[in-house]
Amino acid sequence: QVQLVESGGGLVQAGGSLRLSCVASGNIFSIYGMGWYRQAPGKQREWVASISSGGSTNYADFVKGRFTISRDNAKSMVYLQMNSLKPEDTGVYYCNTLVGRTVIAASPWGQGTQVTVSS
What we know:
119 residues; mainly beta; 0% helix; 46% strand; globular
């Protein structure tokens, strides 16, 4: 099983930036599509962005133009650069491997990293 550890969250003012990181265990990271998800207080977890094994990216409409997902296969890491943050971006952010070409999470969830955006 792949184990995932997220980091990089914090408290930031609206308009600010954060870069989240996720490291995945295992030596076959490069074959997985990877995704970032978030869960706001009182809401269900939602998909934010994904990147295929080949580097193709997709974004939820509410982060397009502000967030950028990237990966480093040599380090088994995936990143989420978040710019122009809004208070509604507040939540716990998680990464996960993906089922095929979907945005369905495939591995057990990590602990996530908290992002808080103040107005």
